[in-house]
Design brief:
Blueprint lengths: L2 E6 L6 H16 L3 E6 L9 H6 L1 E2 L3 E2 H10 L3 E5 H6 L12 E4 L1 H10 L2 E4 L1
Parallel strand pairs: 1-2, 1-7, 2-5, 5-6
Antiparallel strand pairs: 3-4
Helix pairs in contact: 1-3
Length: about 120
């Protein structure tokens, strides 16, 4: 199968669009593809447990359900370190998650490593 990178830049202020990015990533995992997500800007807030548990998009579903399916499907999450720092998100906030803080160079590397890139 192919690999997909989903780059999400919108956060809880745009719940439908944020959940849509996760839904598309989940769909790719369920179809057998390898998936990575790179969250930047306000999207890093999506990895806060309270947001994962409460965000629902209009017609795009529950962030919790999508996140759990992505984790079960071995998706990998990367969070912009610069965006995270600016929003007070630390490595301790994502401890235990399949996620890591990453610099812009990682986004560039991932874009070239994956077969396709989608942005939400």
């Amino acid at each position: 199968m192919s690999s997909l990178l989903v780059h999400i830049t919108c956060g809880p202020e745009a719940p439908t669009r944020a959940a849509l990015g996760f839904l598309v990533a989940r769909t790719a995992v369920e179809e057998g593809h390898s998936v990575s997500l790179f969250l930047a800007g306000d999207a890093v807030q999506l990895m806060r447990t309270a947001v994962i548990d409460s965000l629902n998009g209009l017609g795009t579903g529950s962030l919790r359900e999508h996140y759990d399916a992505l984790v079960a499907g071995n998706a990998r999450f990367y969070l912009s370190g610069v965006s995270s720092k600016a929003r007070g998100l630390t490595a301790a906030d994502i401890e235990g998650m399949p996620a890591e803080l990453a610099p812009p160079a990682v986004l560039v590397r991932l874009a070239f490593e994956h077969d396709r890139v989608l942005t939400y």
